[in-house]
Amino acid sequence: MTAAAQVLLDVSPRSLARPLDYAVPSHLAGRVAVGTPVLVPLGSRIAVGYVVSLGPPSVDEGLRDLVEVLGEPLFDGVRWSSAQWIADEYACRPIEALRLFLPPGSTPKAVKEGDAWRLKRPTVSAATERIVELVLHDFQPPANAHRQRAVVAALQNGPLRVAELRAAIGDVDAAIRALQRHGVVVVTERRRWRSASAGLVREDRLHELTEAQQAAVAAIRDAAPGSVVLLDGVTGSGKTEVYMRAVDAVLREGKQAIVLVPEISLTPQTVGRFRARFGPRLAVLHSRLSDGERYDQWQMVASGEARLVIGARSALFAPVQDLGLIVIDEEHEPSYKQSSEPRYHARDVARRIAERHGAVLVLGSATPSIESLHAAEAGESTVVVLPERATGAAMPAVNVVDMTREFADGNRSMFSRALQSALDDVLGRRGKAVLFINRRGFASFVLCRECGFVPHCPSCSVSLTYHEDRGSLVCHHCGHSEALPSLCPRCRSPYLRRFGTGTQRVEAEISARWPDAPVIRMDADTTARKDGHESVLRRFEESPYGVLVGTQMIAKGLDYPEVELVGVVDADTGMHLPDFRATERTYQLLMQVSGRAGRGSRPGMVVVQTYWPDHPAIRAVVSGDRSELVARELEQRRELGYPPFGRLARVLVASPSRTTAESAAADIAADLTAVIPADWLLLGPTEPAIARLKGLFRRHIVLKAPPRAPLGRVIWTLLAERTPPDGTRIAVDVDPLEML
Fold this sequence. Notes:
Layout lengths: L3 E6 L10 E4 L13 E6 L2 E11 L12 E2 L7 H14 L3 H6 L9 E5 L2 E5 L6 E8 L11 H10 L4 E2 H8 L3 H9 L3 E8 L18 H12 L5 E6 L5 H14 L3 E5 L6 H12 L3 E4 L5 H13 L4 E4 L11 E7 L16 H12 L2 E6 L4 H8 L4 E5 L10 E6 H6 L8 H12 L3 E5 L8 E4 L16 E3 L4 E3 L6 E3 L12 E4 L3 H11 L5 E4 L9 H11 L3 E5 L12 E6 L13 H13 L10 E6 L5 H8 L3 H14 L6 E9 L2 H18 L5 E6 L5 E2 L2 E10 L5 H9 L9 E6 L6
Parallel strand pairs: 11-16, 11-17, 12-14, 12-15, 13-14, 15-16, 18-28, 19-26, 19-27, 25-26, 27-28
Antiparallel strand pairs: 1-2, 1-4, 3-4, 3-5, 6-7, 8-9, 8-10, 20-24, 21-22, 22-23, 29-32, 29-33, 30-32, 31-32
């Protein structure tokens, strides 16, 4: 019987989403394995695919032959199994899930030139460097051969890269060639690893562990393969030190480890600490790297050069050979949920990968998610608590300011008197402070005071944000930008007022009130360029004193002992969103940002400005006790069937035509109603909170189902053969974290 390969095609149609059988011709038999990229015939054209299994064909005759093998295997059966699970769980095409595990920039393409097909290989390739070594140490070049003499002198202490010689001496190519002819030097070529980032390297040494940290390290060490440990530690309790001890133990066993952080902004600091402890042979993976850097970091892991991987959620799919540990720091963070297909959650995928590899999964947070806390109560994970800061420092005092009273007492400033006084005190003695504001820009919207007109994005149903540095109105969803009008476009009134507070406005106010204090702003605008996060954090770290003004990216995991004061300019942002997680997220955000204060020798202070001082999230932050909030949230979710007591899925339909969006959504809802079990609930179709985005009208359908219900499989089966109307997009989000 002819040997057959099951090939997953790298093509778009959903009808071709499942693997197809191809015969393996005899001249390719020894080169085909699971993970091998291949060229195959598809109709009248050639397509690229990946072998996902080998075995007897589904039919005895009529199979077409593989055309060519394109390279070595890029994944194994375990990774393909994980990709299948992701596709099934999150209702996406298997090729989309498999791409998570492939080398960056590795996908080859078949292009047609005339009547012939040609393979277009990826542009990313390995980088090399030339090494020059001196072999005749007593050779003396002619007196007038100055560069040859300089090269020989430089090489007396050992081999050097040509780039290093060039930087020290100048153009050395001719001198090296002359020395080669005389047999004085030899030049070899080796692989050069394009470095990601050096990180914010600080001196790191082994710290004496607290009793709680020792217990945490022991719990991770003794955990069964494939199990989960929830590390529930207050901010500053030394969770990173526990991670590093656990990683060290795994590396000593000859295994590999992956450490995930929720934000790229945290990667430089985390990489710096781990490099200081474990040396340079660790890989860094995140979206801000160049294609070449990502390619090299991936290859470092695949080759075994790097045994530790650090990065954002994509680092989870690095090609580790013997995985022993996965750490997810700040596991509660919504950034672990992918916003584009495949819309996976890194925490849930990590649990699956840890089971497959027999690795231990560590989830760490000062504010664990409701889902993780409930799973721990159900016995699905081991909980280890770090109740105190590792340095013995007290948690910062939290001062809640009722801004309604401030306004009633005549204070029209964005800063309460308590926050002004605290800033005066800290900056007066040249200390450091952090001010948190949950939106970027100068003003959240502009309003005409005569007719009430608010400028909106022409493509999205949202108001435009004013940016002072550009003097323009910007949509934070699609990027549309327009000049701020001098007169109201509706009534021609000159009275256009800017409402709301953004990071730019806070920065301007700080500079006006404390003109001598350095102000460093950290938001999506200031960190947009490559290495932007690292640059901003380095400025703050190297500044002798000053204020860091930022959005959510400063609230997570940053460790600066010099920070004495944290000011939350507006705690209410997010409280009133149409989201059942709004209270939980508000608490997590406020608790996390508060934890940036008082990590050093000086006591910390937190000033929280709010118009709702009795909100449950505010009360929990002040008391430092979340038990009442968690119990209340769990009871409400149990009654409503929300996670963790049920599963949700969202089907979003978007079209340039409102009518098409409505009809397509209605058709999908009707078909789903006919196939879902009786204990599932379908809601909609309805308009989401943002009814129009990037020029597309939107409708969504929400499914509620019991825990562990196969939502993804049911939705995919229904949509796999459906062809959307022209210009219409259908997106499926299983276990969504937002419904906007």
